[in-house]
Sequence to fold (585 residues):
Amino acid sequence: MPSAALQRKWQGRLSLTLLLAPALLWLCALIILPHIDLAILSFRERVGPRHYVASLAQYRTFFAEPLYWHVFVRTAVMSVVATFLTLLLAFPIAWIIAKLAQGRASSLLFILCLIPFWVSETVRTLGWMILLRESGVLPSLLVKLGITAVPVELLYHDATIMVGLIYTSLLFMVIPLISSLESLDNALIEAAYDLGADGFAILRAIVIPHAAPGITAGCIVVFMLTLGNYLTPTLLGGKNSQWFTEQIYTQFITRFNWEQGAALGFLLLALSTVMVMVGLRLTGQRFGDVMRRT
Amino acid sequence: MIPSLPRPAWLRATTAVYLAGFLAFLFLPLIVVAVFAFNNAPYPAPPWRGFTWDWFLGNATIGRIGLFGDSELLGSIWTSCVVGAWVTLLSVLVGTCNAFLIERGRFFGKQALSMLMLAPLVIPGVILGISILAFASRVAEFADDVFGLELDFLRPGLPLVVLGQFSYLATIATLTVSARLRRFDRTLEEAALNLGASKAAVFRTILLPYLRPALLGSSAISFLMSFSDFNTTLMLVGADSPLTVMMYGRMREGASPVLNAVSLFLMLASAVLALTFMRGGPARGKAANSA
Fold:
């Protein structure tokens, strides 16, 4: 082999290694090894000071203690409901932005949808607390309008948590919906209309099948974010929030029971992964495509 | 229905009502936060008692500590800025390397590696936080036992917060930069090389200017998301709290309009940042990448 070609080959090798190094360092040191460590933690039990044995005790505790799996199931169910409601609420606005509004109006609406998400979730949650707490804006408005005699506490209900979760997730549903609706050819809708289809038939037979990738992408992202949310349920739900991430925090940080916390963490991760897989399988999509879409 | 088809009046009316309701839902929380930063009352609650700057400018002498007199809050804003700067630097650097690796590199296992790079987005932030916390403390213990080293940066604190946020923001930077790199016309690069430019010169004069919008956009996104990250940060935080954690603690204790003041400040700052950095190029693509 001529030496110039050999040199080029080695140069290529070298630059590939240099580019690979940060990626491998990042993924190994911050993602793969920590998760292996977490798995090891979750499969051991403390039997004495600095003495541990391998066991399934942490997972057994999860199933034996009703509080844990009640909260687990509750978090999962509420996340599914929140995802569905977010989809219902986001679909019309995505339709308006992608199809109804034209030109500047469409971009303006889109920017308006974006603005609340430039500020942190803490600020948005603060807003909801000021609106909903007993001395807050909405209860006093209800009294003024004569709907309730005394201010009612609107915080600390499941419905409050739901509102907060939907609010936080909206954008992540709207964006993939818009991009999937924009690619739908209006001529198809016009043709269906000319052939006598009504609105619901068009929605069912044309729009939803076409937007399915966007719907799946949005639902997956929203579900994951909702499941892993900590701030909104704890602040809007108060003591009744019973969110699973809270249990993880309590075990890990408050009680310093890392083994139990790791097990709960893995269960949450498993739930999230399974639901994502099911979502992808149901709609026949690939993970990489979905992530690029969002 | 689309504009080219007839829409019945009830549908138009419903659309208008929905749109108004939706925008109200979207902006009501932000508006009340902003408004009650100026209410002359010790709690951010109605009724309106007149306009005041106290919650920004107040100090101990008038009995109301405003934002600019609250050294704890100001300190936490500074902490967030420092964390954000490090996270942004790391994420954009690593993200750019990754983009070249994925778009240009040819090696065994590339498909698997690029899938693995997406993983941090699917892992809940809380779990990223606890796994890094546990692993870091194991490494610290190991270093202590075997080499007798005290590695303080591996204990809960700002270095870990930076690493925790970086662990998933690197993915977002990777996606943003590689999306732009993918659309690059490689004949430009080849032409420059044919004309005798060195690889370094091509990178500096052609690729870097081309990637600039993506680099700036992903910097802005990384900084904003680092500033507002809560889940991962909460698990890794030590003695110095970044702003979100500090605000969370205060919100649990009780309400004070100082929080409204700092929130308003945040809203303005993030709006300015978002508008300056995301103006170039289609806003939609950038925003999509932040999700």
User: Anything to note?
Assistant: Strands of chain A lie at 44-48, 51-54.
